[in-house]
Specification:
heterodimer; A: alpha/beta; abc type-2 transporter like fold; 4-stranded mixed beta sheet; B: alpha/beta; Rossmann fold; Alpha-Beta Plaits; 6-stranded mixed beta sheet
Chain lengths: 382, 588
C-alpha cells in the first residue's frame, strides 16, 4: 500500500466503491425478487392490512334468545339491530343458540330469561346472559365490550324514560384520543412501514450477501485489491436507498390510499427512517456473516428480524400487556422504537420527547451493530 | 518492497510445513498435512489430484483467504496470512465457480473488475478488445454471463483475471465442465499470457491428461504431496512398462480383470477394443505374453507412458504403505435373462422440446443387452435430457422410446421397476448414515423384511462399506459416496443401469474400482448406459454416441470413431482428438 500516494489510493478506493455500487444496482434492477421485496411486497402488505385485516369487530353474528318477548326486551334487541357492530340472529332456545355457537355460525349469545320483564318491572335485578366464543381471545374481548356497550346504552335510555336510575350507578362516557374513529388501520399501517423496511434491510441484504458466498462471487471479489469496508459500503449504500424508496412508497400509499392521517413532520420521518434503515441493514450484514446460504440467511432473517418486528414492536400487540420477560426482550428490537416514532408522527404529530428518545435508541443500536460488523468482517473465508 | 525480493529467487510461492484442517460436525478433516514445496516463477504449474487432495485449500491459503493452522506460505515474497492485501493486489485468482456475476452482462463484469483493479477508464476499451478477441467473446459483450455456455463462462472468468496482467495467476479447476474445444482454447490463452507477460500460473486439475500440458506438476493426494517435477520426470521412468493388448473382443473384460489385480501390474484398463497394461518391470512385448500367460491371438504392442500411469503407481505405493488394499473387487449380480443380442433400449427419432427450443432434436440409437453404452457431449449437448427421458423422468415430445421391451411413453412405471439410476453428484441423503441410506433406497424400491436385509448386507459387503455403515454420508470421502450411490441404485437388482457422470472428481484408482464393478455387472447381462465428459472414460464403453446441440454427430465403437474422425496427420488419435475433430467438422 505504501507504493501509492494517499491521493492515488483515495482515487482507487472511490473507483472500487463506485464499481461495487454500480454492480449492485444492475443486480437489483435485474433481480425480480429484490424489486418484489422493495416495492411489490409493501403494496401487498399494505393492502392486506389496510383492507383485509382489521382488529375492529364489525357485523359480528350474534345469537339472541328472548324467552318471553315484551316491549322492554324489544327495546333492548333494537339496540343490537341498530348497531353496525352486530348482525343479530334469533333463536327459540338457548340450546339452539349454543349449537350454532359450536358450529361457529355465531360469535356469541345474548339471552334474556322468561322472567326478565317481570323482574325488571318489579325493580329487582334483571340480568342478561352473555356467552362469547373465546377461541379468539382478542375478538372475544371486543365482542364482550360491544355487548356491554349496547346494554349500557339501553339501560341509560330505559332509565331516562322511566325517570329513575336502575342498578347502574354511573354513566360511562368513552372518548378515544388520537384515533377518534378507532380505526385499527390508522395504527396498523404506520407500524407496517417498520415491518417493510425490516424486510428490505434485514432479509434482502442478508440474502444477497449469502448469494454471493453461495455462487462463489464473494471468493473472487475478496482476492482483489478491494478493502473489506468497501465491500460493506457497497452493500449498505444501494440497499439503504432501496429501503428508503420502499418507505416513501409505503408512506405515500398510507396517506393517499388509506387516508391515514399524518400529523408530524416529513423531515423528522425521513431522519428516523434513515436511522432505522441503518440498523436493519446492519442486522442483515451480521446475519450474512453467520449464514452460508441464501436459504439459511432467509430463515435467520425471518426469525430475528421479521417476526420480532411483527410481534414485539408494538405494531399489532401492545407491549404493555405483554408478560414482563417478553417486554424486556422488546427493548432489543429496533422496530419497537421505530414503530413508536411512526405511530406518534402519524397519529399525534411531532412529540419531540418521544421522538428524540427513540431516535437515540436507534442510533445506539446502529452504532453497536456496525461495531460488531467491523469486528467480525475480514477478507477470509472462515 | 525489499521484502518482496528476499524470497523471490525464482519461486512465486514458497510453502513451509503448511497444515490446514476443517471440522465437519465433530470430525476433524485434515486438508493439508505439513506440506513443504516451492512453485517456480514464469511457468505453468499444475496442482494435480482428485477431489479431497487439498488443491483448493492450498490455493485459498495462497490467496490469503484462509489462515493456516501452522506453517506459512509466501506468495511473491509476501506472507499470505500477514500481508494478504499485498498478495491480493499482485495476484489474480479464479475460484472454481468462475466468480462471475451471472446476472450482469459480459461488459458489466469486465467493468466491475476494471473498477476493482483500478484500471484507468481511458485504457479499458483497448484492453477489452484484446481480451475479447482472444477469448472469442467479442460478439457477446451485451449478453448476460449466466446465458453463456460453460466454456464461454470460463473464458470470461479468465478474461476478468487478465484485465491487468498479474504476476501470479491462480486458477482453481478452470476446465471442469468445459468441452474439449473450449478447454484447448483456455490452455492456449494461459500459455500466451505466460509468454507475453512472463506471469506465473498455478492451476489445479483432476484430469491427468491435462496435467501433461503443464511445465511442472505437483501431485497431491489426501493432503499430501506425492511428488513434484516436470511431467516427463514421472512418466519417463515407465517407458518400456506400457503395452497395448488386443484380445478377442468377448475376452477383453475377463482378461482386464485378471490382469488388474496382479501384483506385477500397475494398471490395466480397457481402451476401446484394447487393454492398456502398465507393468512394474520393464520388458519386451513378447516377454509380456510369456510372463502373464497370454494367448497367441493377443496382439501386443508397446505404448508411450503417461503421467496417469505414474500417478497410479505413486498412489498404489502410498496406499500399500498405509495398509490399504489396492485390489479391485467385483460384485455379484443375478444373471439377467435374455439372449445376447437382444435390443433392450430402442430410441427412434426422439425429440424433446422446451418452449421452442429442442434440447433433443431427433436422435435414434439402440443398445443391446449387457452392453456398456456411452453418451458423450459437452454441456448443453442434450445428454442429461436424453437420459431423463430414458429413465422415465421426463416425457418425450416426439418419437419412440422402448426400454426393457416397454413403451416408455405409455408404461413408464412398469419400465422403471427394471431400471437403476445413479444421478450426477451422487444424490444421497447426506444427513443419513450409510445404512439408513441403503435401507431407505431399498424400501423405496419395494424391498422389505428378509429380502431387504439380504440386499443391504450384500451392498455393505460388495462395496466395502461395512466399516462405514454408521458414518454420516456427508463425511465420507468421495470414492465411498460414489460406491454408496451405486449400491443404492442396485438394491432391486435392475436389468438396466443408468449412470450420469458417475466418476467426476474421484481419483483414478477409485474410478478403476468403479469400472471394475460396472464391468462385472455387464458380464452378468446388465445393460449399462453412461454419460460422461471424460474422453478416456468413453473408451471403457463398448459403443458410444457423440452428441452436440441435441443431435447425434456420430455413433459406433470407440475404435471405429477414432479411425473415422481424427485430425490430419495423426496416426494414433485419442478420443479427445476425435471429439474435437467431429465438433469442428460440424461447426464448419
Amino acid at each position: 500500500m505504501g507504493s501509492y500516494s494517499s491521493s492515488t489510493e483515495k482515487k482507487l478506493a472511490r473507483m472500487r466503491l463506485r464499481g461495487l455500487i454500480k454492480k449492485e444496482i444492475h443486480q437489483i434492477l435485474r433481480d425480480p425478487s429484490s424489486i418484489g421485496i422493495a416495492f411489490f411486497l409493501p403494496v401487498v402488505l399494505l393492502l392486506i392490512f389496510g383492507y383485509g385485516v382489521s382488529l375492529d369487530a364489525e357485523h359480528v353474528p350474534i345469537g339472541i334468545v328472548i324467552e318471553q318477548p315484551g316491549p322492554e326486551t324489544n327495546a333492548f334487541v333494537a339496540g343490537f339491530m341498530e348497531s353496525e357492530y352486530f348482525n343479530p340472529v334469533f333463536f327459540q332456545s338457548v340450546q339452539q343458540a349454543e349449537s350454532a355457537l359450536l358450529q361457529r355460525k355465531i360469535m356469541g349469545i345474548v339471552w334474556t330469561r322468561s322472567d326478565f320483564t317481570r323482574r325488571l318491572l318489579g325493580g329487582a335485578e334483571a340480568p342478561i346472559g352473555v356467552i362469547v366464543d373465546g377461541v379468539d381471545a382478542n375478538q372475544a374481548r371486543i365482542v364482550q365490550g360491544y355487548i356491554t356497550g349496547v346494554w349500557m346504552k339501553w339501560i341509560a335510555s330505559y332509565a331516562k324514560a322511566k325517570g329513575k336510575l336502575l342498578s347502574v350507578p354511573v354513566n360511562i362516557k368513552h372518548r378515544i384520543w388520537f384515533n377518534s374513529a378507532v380505526r385499527s388501520r390508522n395504527f396498523l399501517v404506520p407500524g407496517l412501514i417498520a415491518v417493510i423496511m425490516t424486510l428490505i434491510g434485514g432479509m434482502l441484504t442478508s440474502m444477497v450477501i449469502a448469494r454471493e458466498w453461495e455462487r462463489g462471487t464473494m471468493e473472487a471479489l475478496l482476492v482483489t485489491p478491494v478493502r473489506i469496508r468497501e465491500i460493506i459500503l457497497g452493500k449498505v449504500i444501494p440497499y439503504f436507498f432501496l429501503g428508503m424508496g420502499g418507505m416513501a412508497l409505503s408512506v405515500f400509499i398510507s396517506i393517499v390510499i388509506f387516508h391515514v392521517p399524518f400529523r408530524g413532520s416529513y423531515l423528522a420521518l425521513g431522519l428516523a427512517s434513515a436511522l432505522f434503515m441503518l440498523t436493519a441493514i446492519a442486522l442483515g450484514l451480521i446475519i450474512s456473516t453467520a449464514a452460508g446460504s441464501q436459504f439459511v440467511a432467509g430463515q435467520i432473517a425471518i426469525v430475528i428480524t421479521f417476526l420480532p418486528a411483527f410481534m414485539l414492536s408494538g405494531f399489532v400487540f401492545d407491549i404493555n400487556s405483554m408478560p414482563l420477560p417478553i417486554q424486556i426482550i422488546t427493548y432489543i428490537v429496533a422496530a419497537r422504537y421505530f414503530v413508536s416514532i411512526l405511530q406518534s408522527l402519524f397519529l399525534a404529530g411531532n412529540i419531540w420527547p418521544i421522538y428524540i428518545v427513540n431516535c437515540c435508541y436507534l442510533a445506539i443500536m446502529a452504532a453497536l451493530f456496525f461495531m460488531i460488523i467491523k469486528k467480525k468482517s475480514h477478507k477470509r473465508l472462515i | 518492497m525489499s521484502r518482496a525480493r528476499d524470497n523471490d529467487e525464482g519461486y512465486c510461492i514458497v510453502a513451509q510445513n503448511l497444515r490446514k484442517s476443517f471440522f465437519s460436525g465433530n470430525k476433524e478433516i485434515v486438508a493439508l498435512h505439513d506440506c513443504t514445496f516451492k512453485v517456480k516463477s514464469g511457468v505453468v504449474t499444475g496442482l494435480i489430484g482428485p477431489d479431497g487432495a487439498g488443491k483448493t485449500t492450498f490455493m485459498r491459503l495462497c490467496a490469503g483467504l484462509l489462515v493456516p493452522d501452522s506453517g506459512s506460505v509466501q506468495v511473491l515474497g509476501f506472507d499470505a496470512t500477514e500481508h494478504f492485501l499485498d498478495v491480493q493486489t499482485n495476484i489474480r485468482y479464479m475460484p472454481q465457480r468462475f466468480g462471475l456475476y451471472e446476472d450482469l452482462t459480459v461488459r458489466e463484469n469486465l467493468e466491475l473488475y476494471s473498477d476493482l483493479l483500478g484500471i484507468e477508464p481511458e485504457k479499458r476499451e483497448d484492453r477489452y478488445r484484446i481480451l475479447m478477441d482472444m477469448t472469442g467473446l467479442a460478439p457477446f459483450m451485451g449478453r448476460l454471463a449466466g446465458r453463456l455456455s460453460g466454456g464461454m463462462k470460463q473464458k470470461l472468468g479468465l478474461a476478468c483475471t487478465l484485465l491487468k496482467p498479474p504476476r501470479l495467476l491462480i486458477l482453481d479447476e478452470p476446465t471442469v465442465g468445459v468441452d474439449p474445444v473450449s478447454r484447448r482454447e483456455l490452455w492456449e490463452i494461459v500459455y500466451s499470457q505466460v509468454e507475453q507477460e512472463g506471469m506465473s500460473v498455478l492451476l489445479s486439475t483432476a484430469y491427468l491428461d491435462e496435467a501433461e500440458r503443464c511445465q511442472e506438476v505437483i501431485l497431491m493426494h489426501e493432503g499430501h504431496v506425492m511428488g513434484q517435477g516436470v511431467p516427463d520426470r514421472f512418466s519417463k521412468p515407465l517407458s518400456g512398462h506400457c503395452f497395448m493388448l488386443k484380445p478377442a473382443p468377448q475376452k477383453k473384460r475377463a482378461l482386464q480383470r485378471s490382469l488388474a489385480n496382479r501384483d506385477e501390474v500397475i494398471d490395466a484398463i480397457i481402451l476401446g477394443e484394447r487393454i492398456r497394461l502398465v507393468t512394474t518391470e520393464a520388458m519386451e512385448p513378447e516377454a509380456v505374453r510369456e510372463f502373464f500367460g497370454l494367448e497367441q491371438t493377443v496382439e501386443i504392442t508397446e505404448s508411450e507412458p503417461r503421467l496417469e500411469d505414474a500417478f497410479i503407481w505413486l498412489l498404489k505405493e502410498r496406499l500399500k504403505k498405509l495398509g490399504r488394499s489396492v485390489k479391485f473387487k467385483t460384485i455379484t449380480h443375478r444373471k439377467v435373462a435374455g439372449k445376447g443380442d437382444e435390443e433392450v433400449i430402442v430410441v427412434k427419432n426422439l425429440k424433446r422440446r422446451f418452449g421452442d427450443f429442442y434440447a433433443v432434436a431427433g436422435i435414434s440409437f439402440s443398445v443391446r443387452r449387457g452392453e456398456v453404452f456411452g453418451l458423450l457431449g459437452a454441456n448443453g449437448a442434450g445428454k442429461t435430457t436424453t437420459f431423463r427421458m430414458l429413465c422415465g423422468l421426463l416425457p418425450a415430445s416426439e418419437g419412440q422410446l422402448y426400454v426393457a421391451g416397454k413403451n416408455l411413453r405409455k408404461a413408464r412405471a412398469k419400465a422403471r421397476e427394471r431400471i437403476g439410476y445413479m444421478a450426477q453428484k451422487f444424490s444421497l441423503y447426506v444427513d443419513l448414515t450409510v445404512l439408513q441410506n441403503l435401507r431407505f433406497f431399498s424400501s423405496a424400491y419395494g424391498l422389505f423384511g428378509k429380502k431387504q436385509e439380504e440386499r443391504i448386507n450384500w451392498a455393505l459387503e460388495a462395496f466395502d462399506l461395512k466399516d462405514e455403515a454408521n458414518s454420516i454420508s456427508r463425511d465420507l470421502p468421495l470414492g465411498y459416496k460414489q460406491r454408496l450411490a451405486l449400491a443404492a441404485a442396485l438394491m432391486h437388482e435392475p436389468d438396466i443401469l443408468f449412470l450420469d457422470e458417475p466418476t467426476s472428481g474421484v481419483d483414478p484408482l477409485a474410478r478403476r474400482q468403479f469400472w471394475a464393478h460396472i464391468n462385472s455387472l455387464a458380464d452378468a447381462g446388465v445393460t449399462i448406459m453412461v454419460t460422461t465428459h471424460f474422453m478416456e472414460e468413453a473408451e471403457y464403453c463398448d459403443r458410444i454416441v457423440i452428441m452436440k446441440r441435441g443431435r447425434i454427430l456420430a455413433q459406433g465403437t470407440p475404435e471405429e470413431l477414432k479411425k473415422r474422425f481424427h485430425p490430419p496427420g495423426i496416426t494414433n488419435p485419442t478420443m479427445e482428438d476425435t471429439f474435437i475433430t467431429l465438433i469442428e467438422m460440424e461447426g464448419a
